[in-house]
C-alpha cells in the first residue's frame, strides 16, 4: 500500500471540496434563479470537463499554468516557484475539473425549490440573505452534500489531468490513482489490487453516506 499517495489523495480531495463547494453553491444558486440569453453556453462551458478527454483538458491546463502563460508568470513572481508539477497547481486543476460535479447537483437542488417560497419570504419581509440562509440552503442541502461527495470521490480517482499537470512526484503530486498505474506497469498486480480495492471501498462508503444523509435531511424538511 502506497500510504503517502493515499494520504496525498485524501488531502487533495478534502481541499478541493473546501475550496470549490462555496463557489459552486453561489454559482449553482445564481444559475437556478436567473434566466438570460447566454445561459445555455455558460452551462455548456461548465459541463465541459464531463465530456472532454482528461488528457485534452490536462493539456490545456498545462499550457494555462505553464511559465509562458500570464497565470504561471504571476504565480512565479509571487511565490518563486512553478505552478505546474506542484501540489498547488494540482489543487487548482482539481478544482477546475470538478466544477460540473459540484455545480450541477447544487443547481438542480435550488431549481427544485418552489418559487412561491421565495415570494412568501419576500412578502414576510425577509431579507435576501436571510431567506437564502434560513430557507434555501436547508432545502438545497441534499444537493450540496451530493456535490461534496461527487467532488471528493472524483478527485480520488482522477488520473489524466493529475498526471498532465502534476506529474508523478512522490510525496508531492503522486496520487493513489497514479500509484495504481505505476504498480500495474511494474506488474505488481497484488499491490495495485489492494489500492484499487481500498479506493473502491472509500468511494462506496462516501456515496452511501451521502444517500443516507440526504434521505434523513429530506425527511426532516418534508
Note down, in words, how this protein is organized.
This protein has helices at 3-33, 39-51, 54-65, 70-79, 87-97, 99-111, 115-123, 128-157, 160-166, 176-185, 189-220. The protein is globular and about 65 Å long. The chain is mainly alpha-helical and 222 residues long. Helix content is 80%, strand content 0%. It contains eleven helices and no strands.
Major β-sheet profile: none
Total count of strands: 0
Q: Given the helix and strand composition, which structural class is it?
A: mainly alpha
Percentage of β-strand residues: under 5%
Kindly report the average pLDDT value.
Answer: 84
Helix content: over 70%
Radius of gyration: 20 Å
Outline, from the CA principal axes? globular
Please supply descriptive tags for the structure shown above.
globular; 0% strand; 80% helix; 222 residues; mainly alpha
Summarize the structure.
The chain is mostly helical. It has eleven helices and no strands.
Write the layout of secondary structure elements.
Elements: H1 3-33, H2 39-51, H3 54-65, H4 70-79, H5 87-97, H6 99-111, H7 115-123, H8 128-157, H9 160-166, H10 176-185, H11 189-220
Helix pairs in contact: 1-5, 1-6, 1-8, 1-10, 2-6, 3-9, 5-9, 6-8, 7-8, 8-11, 10-11
Amino acid at each position: 500500500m502506497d500510504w503517502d499517495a493515499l494520504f496525498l489523495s485524501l488531502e487533495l480531495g478534502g481541499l478541493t471540496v473546501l475550496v470549490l463547494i462555496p463557489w459552486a453553491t453561489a454559482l449553482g444558486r445564481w444559475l437556478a434563479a436567473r434566466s438570460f440569453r447566454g445561459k445555455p453556453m455558460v452551462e455548456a462551458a461548465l459541463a465541459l470537463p464531463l465530456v472532454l478527454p482528461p488528457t485534452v483538458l490536462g493539456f490545456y491546463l498545462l499550457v494555462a499554468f505553464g511559465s509562458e502563460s500570464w497565470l504561471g508568470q504571476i504565480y512565479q513572481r509571487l511565490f518563486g516557484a512553478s505552478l505546474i508539477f506542484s501540489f498547488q497547481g494540482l489543487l487548482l486543476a482539481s478544482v477546475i475539473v470538478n466544477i460540473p460535479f459540484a455545480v450541477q447537483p447544487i443547481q438542480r437542488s435550488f431549481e427544485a425549490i418552489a418559487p412561491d417560497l421565495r415570494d412568501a419570504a419576500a412578502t414576510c419581509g425577509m431579507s435576501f440573505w436571510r431567506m437564502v440562509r434560513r430557507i434555501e440552503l436547508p432545502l438545497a442541502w441534499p444537493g450540496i452534500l451530493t456535490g461534496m461527495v461527487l467532488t471528493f470521490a472524483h478527485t480520488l480517482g482522477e488520473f489524466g489531468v493529475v498526471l498532465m499537470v502534476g506529474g508523478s512526484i512522490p510525496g508531492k503530486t503522486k496520487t493513489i490513482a497514479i500509484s495504481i498505474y505505476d504498480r500495474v506497469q511494474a506488474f505488481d498486480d497484488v499491490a495495485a489490487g489492494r489500492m484499487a480495492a481500498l479506493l473502491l471501498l472509500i468511494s462506496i462508503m462516501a456515496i452511501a453516506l451521502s444517500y443516507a444523509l440526504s434521505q434523513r435531511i429530506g425527511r426532516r424538511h418534508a
